[in-house]
Amino acid sequence: MRLKFIQLLAGAALLALPAHAQQPEPVQIPAAVLRVDETRLPPLSRLDLPPPDLGFAGARLAMDDNDTTGRFMGQDFEAIEVTATPDTAAAEMQAILDQGIEFIVLLADDATTLALSDQAGAGVMVFNAGARGDNLRGADCRFNMIHVAPSHAMLTDAMAQFLMWKSWPRWFLIHGSHPEDQALADAWRRAAAKFGARIVEEREFEDTGGARRTDSGHVQVQAQMPVFTQRASEHDVVIAADEADVFANHLPYLTWDPRPVAGSAGLVPRSWHPAMEAWGGTQFQNRFERLANRQMREEDYQVWLSLRMVGEAATRTQSGDPEVLKEFILSPEFDVAGFKGQALTVRDWDHQLRQPILLTTGALTTSVSPQDQYLHQTSALDTLGFDRPETQCRF
Question: Which residues span the domain enclosing 235?
Answer without folding.
Answer: 152-207+215-270+356-395
